[in-house]
Amino acid sequence: MKKKKWSCVLLILAFVLLLAACQQNANHKTTEEKVTDPKQLYTTAFQKTLNAKTYDSSIDADINIDTSNLQGEYKEIADVINNAKLTVDAKVNEETKQSELVFKGKFSYENLSMDFNVPVYLDEDKQRGYIKLDSMLKSFGIFLGTSENHLKSVKNKYLEFSLEEDQPLNPHTEERLKRKLQESLIKAMGDIPQDNFKKSQQGAAQKVTLSLSNKGFKTFIMNYFDVSGEALKDPLTNTEMNQLKEDFLEKINFKKLSITATMDNKEYIQNVNTDILFHVDHRDFTGDIGCKLSTSYKNINGDVTFKYNPKKDQILTEDEFEELMTQATEMN
């Protein structure tokens, strides 16, 4: 059940973002006839994004948490999140199973304001990820107690970490799983009523907004689990379904969920704006959480160059990193 609950979280994020889609892979298709129906235009553009072999995108996130019922450190953490600015730049090559994420932005805590910029490189074939250490320490060193000696010791070095799960899938099984989940997502989207899609024109670009009510979004989620469970021959049990309803559907009320996708005249997505507001009623937190996301695509199925792909002599294991930190501390 643990993996299925995580799958639910990932599904919701993928649907709301409409397309961080960093884990998808399929053959690129073209559409000769121009699509005018808003629902078909939306799902066609969504499918093309999922089918992309390479892309270069950027996501801006703005999160707002209701702090009226929070106190102490919980309120402090929520205030940091509310005032933070976050951008994630992503470059992905599905054919080589490589991706590069750069987390950057600004946050403030009490009288302290800091910028951060942390590149991360991922290699799915090797099941390894790499964090650029000097950027990480420069961004968050004040909280880690690092000095100039620490920065010098890890200049242009990368910390290696594992991407493997407890029971990693073989490549063939993983690709089959991704394909089935993608097909299930498209099928579930096809069951969303036509009236939920509204189209508008802005010059040569076309806009389609998908709006879902609380009931509509939860219906979509349940439909997705039915479709994907059937496709994977692994449906949720009654116990798991009841737990999903109890842990998620009954404790969260979606007040607003709209996703506006802007497509060019070739029906490729240029950007996606997501506006979501939901109310949580839980013993640990009661209040509203709002999230606005803006995703832009600068390059789909074009050449992608990775700037932060480390060389062998730049890679440090966790033990090697700790040893360098100890040596740098002794030099202070």
Helix content: 25-40%
Uncertain runs are 1-32
Order of helices and strands: HHEHEEEEHHEHEEHHEEEEH
Shape: globular
What's the multimeric state? single chain
Number of extended strands: 12
Mean pLDDT: 83
Strand content: 25-35%
Number of helical regions: 9
What does the largest sheet look like? 12 strands, mixed
Strand neighbour order, sheet with most strands? 7-8-9-10-11-1-2-3-4-5-6-12
Task: Look at the helices and sheets and give the structural class.
Answer: alpha+beta
How far is it from the N-terminal to the C-terminal residue, by CA? 49 Å
Question: Radius of gyration in whole Å, from Cα?
Answer: 22 Å
Summarize the structure.
The protein has helices at 2-17, 38-51, 72-83, 133-144, 148-153, 171-190, 214-231, 238-249, 318-331, and strands spanning 54-65, 85-93, 98-109, 112-123, 128-132, 158-162, 197-202, 205-211, 252-263, 269-281, 286-300, 315-316.
SSE order and pairing:
Layout: H1 2-17, H2 38-51, E1 54-65, H3 72-83, E2 85-93, E3 98-109, E4 112-123, E5 128-132, H4 133-144, H5 148-153, E6 158-162, H6 171-190, E7 197-202, E8 205-211, H7 214-231, H8 238-249, E9 252-263, E10 269-281, E11 286-300, E12 315-316, H9 318-331
Parallel strand pairs: 6-12
Antiparallel strand pairs: 1-2, 1-11, 2-3, 3-4, 4-5, 5-6, 7-8, 8-9, 9-10, 10-11
